[in-house]
Design goal:
The structure is a single chain. This protein has 407 residues and is of the alpha+beta class. Helix content is 64%, strand content 9%. The chain is built from 12 helices and 5 strands. Strands 1-2-3-5-4 form a 5-stranded mixed β-sheet. The relative contact order is 0.06.
């Protein structure tokens, strides 16, 4: 028994679970910021206690809401970080942690250019805020050049030590966001492809049903009309027509069971004797024989060396011939029909001609689902099909399918 695959932890957590984890993380950072701010008196700028508490709460709220409001969270961190940073001669640990978490979330969720603007805003705002406090704009002025130079070097080094990890976090977030977008695109393409395959399968099933039902019902209708016409004068002919109707109906039911069995079992249950293989070129003789039972003189000719072809290709050629013969029975009012199967070196061809009244359409092509279905079957393999009236009367359907495309 195969064990079920367990998705990663981040896939098993729901959105509200992740927000709850962020809220807990934000609360911890808020407490650490307060402990740091009200610790030993080593502040560069003496902010009121209310400002320290407000900055700590803003940092915690920004981390807690970073997945829901990425841009407001980044602005909040950019404004609160300089205030917290002035409360210690050393850069407080909660500040870069909050910056990294918020910046990572923004880089994952927004495009790369917007994420780059967020990185610049965070680094630039923090640098300006710290410089304003450490070099006299908010705090005490450093009149001694030596002290100023020493303080400047310390601040530049501290900002660089803070900026380098943030740049790494930003690059990681951008990479993760790009990977998620790529994966989502692949998933969307796969879903679209699956929908196209389902639509194509439905069209194939519709063609199969049309070919089975149309051909066999045409034969049944023709035999029923014959039985009704000769029932009084020639009852033996009527009985013969009824026998043919029964045989045709059973054949149609067998093909329908096969098709429905393939729908249920995917490839059909081979152990079921009712699920016979799909018809192929070897069954054209029987197809012409059933056509001849409707009163037509049906003839099959085979040109070239007969050989085995892929089953889908044989089924397509069989259905083209079946649909052409169905049209002859239903519409042509013909006396004779001939099918020619041609095995070429690089193609397979089927031609069906009759001596009936030809097509009713102005361009020599009778519109309808049958001809459309034949064209679609040929188009799948990149083949060609021609259909039209013959000069001396009658109608011709000629299809050619390249074997290379079929392979």
């Amino acid at each position: 028994m195969t064990a079920a695959a367990i998705p990663p932890l981040n896939r098993r957590l729901r959105a509200r679970d992740l927000v709850a984890i962020d809220a807990l993380t934000g609360a911890v950072l808020c407490v650490l910021t307060l402990l740091h701010g009200f610790g030993p008196p080593e502040a560069v700028v003496a902010f009121p206690a209310v400002a320290i508490v407000a900055a700590a709460l803003v940092l915690g709220a920004a981390v807690a809401l970073r997945r829901v409001l990425p841009w407001p969270s980044l602005w909040a961190v950019a404004l609160a970080s300089p205030v917290v940073a002035q409360e210690s001669l050393s850069f407080p640990v909660p500040v870069p942690v909050a910056m990294g978490l918020v910046l990572y979330t923004l880089a994952v969720q927004v495009p790369r250019r917007e994420a780059a603007r967020g990185l610049g805003l965070l680094l630039g705002g923090t640098a300006l805020g710290v410089a304003a406090g450490r070099f006299g704009l908010l705090g005490p002025r450093l009149a001694n050049p030596v002290e100023f130079h020493h303080a400047f070097r310390q601040e530049v080094l501290g900002l660089m030590l803070c900026a380098l990890p943030l740049c790494g976090v930003w690059m990681t977030g951008v990479a993760v966001g790009a990977n998620r977008a790529y994966t989502a695109g692949l998933r969307a393409q796969a879903e679209q492809r699956a929908r196209e395959l389902v639509a194509a399968e439905r069209l194939r099933i519709a063609r199969e049903l049309h070919d089975i039902v149309a051909h066999n019902l045409s034969l049944i209708t023709m035999q029923a009309s014959v039985a009704g016409y000769v029932a009084e004068d020639r009852p033996e002919e009527a009985v013969k027509a009824l026998v043919l109707i029964e045989r045709t109906g059973r054949g149609a039911l067998t093909e329908m069971r096969r098709l429905l069995g393939m729908l249920r079992d995917g490839e059909g249950n081979r152990r079921d004797p009712e699920l016979v293989p799909a018809p192929g070129l070897a069954d054209l003789d029987q197809l012409l024989a059933r056509t001849a039972e409707s009163g037509l003189r049906a003839e099959l000719r085979i040109s070239g060396d007969r050989r085995e072809l892929p089953a889908p290709l044989e089924l397509a050629v069989y259905r083209i011939a079946q649909e052409a013969l169905t049209n002859v029975i239903k519409h042509a009012a013909a006396r004779r029909v001939r099918a020619v199967l041609t095995y070429g070196e690089d193609s397979i061809g089927i031609e069906v001609t009759d001596d009936g009244r030809g097509a009713a359409g102005p361009a020599g092509v009778s519109p309808g689902h049958g001809l459309v279905g034949m064209r679609e079957r040929v188009a799948v393999y990149g083949g060609e099909i021609e259909a039209g009236s013959l000069p001396g009367g009658g109608f011709r359907v000629s299809a050619r399918i390249p074997l290379e495309a079929a392979r």
